[in-house]
Design goal:
The structure holds two protein chains of two kinds.
Chain A lengths: L4 E3 L2 E5 L4 E6 L4 E9 L6 E6 L5 E4 L2 E5 L5 E6 L8 E9 L7 E2 L3 E6 L1
Parallel strand pairs in A: 2-11
Antiparallel strand pairs in A: 1-3, 3-8, 4-5, 4-9, 6-7, 7-8, 9-10, 9-11
Chain B lengths: L4 E3 L2 E4 L5 E6 L6 E7 L6 E7 L2 E4 L8 E4 L6 E5 L8 E8 L7 E2 L3 E5 L1
The chains are: A mainly beta, B mainly beta.
């Protein structure tokens, strides 16, 4: 079974703190996407990482794709209450059934 | 560019009743997905269409769930009869062929009582 394990599963932090969310797999992915989902809404695409070792920045969010394209991380600097939500990584593994796989999710709550 | 549209946004039904959800994907997106999402979890794929053909319906409970995409654009997902455990958010997503990113609609929150 191809899995994308995210950690931590839950995270509650104070406004202004930094945090990192991890997305790990034993499979190689052609690309990985990160989504954020707010309550009552569908997931919203944040970024796609394609190249091993790639780093992308989106304001206070920094995304990194592992060199071997098996893992990714999301780092948030100076978290704000608006960052609260469910963070999901997802992608197509390069082998196997070629099904789009979602990570297990990280629920983030940023307290004002 | 308009996003993925879904309706209704909320639905409350009693068990054993029927319900249908509608999805209109982003124009030009050949691939359409229906997902079921239980609170706090990631989306679970129910069915994937490529144009109007089914690519993957391995996790669709076919005894009660059905979906169609007759003209390769809009899609409907039906549950008949509903069970309590069907209470969830049903998400529709579309994807441009050759790209990994999926674009999601706002979802339909179903409550079965």
């Amino acid at each position: 079974t191809q899995l994308l394990e995210q950690s931590p599963q839950f995270l509650s932090i104070q406004e202004g703190e930094n945090l990192t969310v991890y997305c790990n797999s034993s499979s190689v992915f052609s690309s990985l996407q990160w989504y954020r989902q707010e309550p009552g809404e569908g997931p919203v695409l944040l970024v796609t990482v394609v190249t091993g070792g790639e780093v992308k920045k989106l304001k206070r969010l920094t995304f990194q794709f592992g060199d071997a394209r098996k893992d990714s991380s999301l780092h948030i600097t100076a978290a704000q209450p608006g960052d609260t939500g469910l963070y999901l990584c997802a992608g197509f593994p390069t082998s196997g059934t070629y099904k789009y796989i979602f990570g297990t999710g990280t629920r983030l709550k940023v307290l004002a | 560019e308009a996003g993925v549209a879904q309706s209704p946004r909320y639905k409350i039904i009693e068990k054993r009743q029927s319900v249908a959800f509608w999805c209109n994907p982003i124009s030009g997106h050949a691939t359409l997905y229906w997902y079921q999402q239980i609170l706090g979890q990631g989306p679970k794929l129910l069915i994937q269409f490529q144009n109007n053909g089914v690519v993957d319906d391995s996790q669709l409970p076919k005894d009660r769930f059905s979906a169609e995409r007759l003209k390769g654009v809009d899609s409907t997902l039906k549950i008949q009869p509903a069970k309590l455990e069907d209470s969830a958010v049903y998400l529709c997503a579309s994807r441009l062929t050759g790209r990994g990113e999926q674009y999601f609609g706002p979802g339909t929150r179903l409550t079965v009582t």
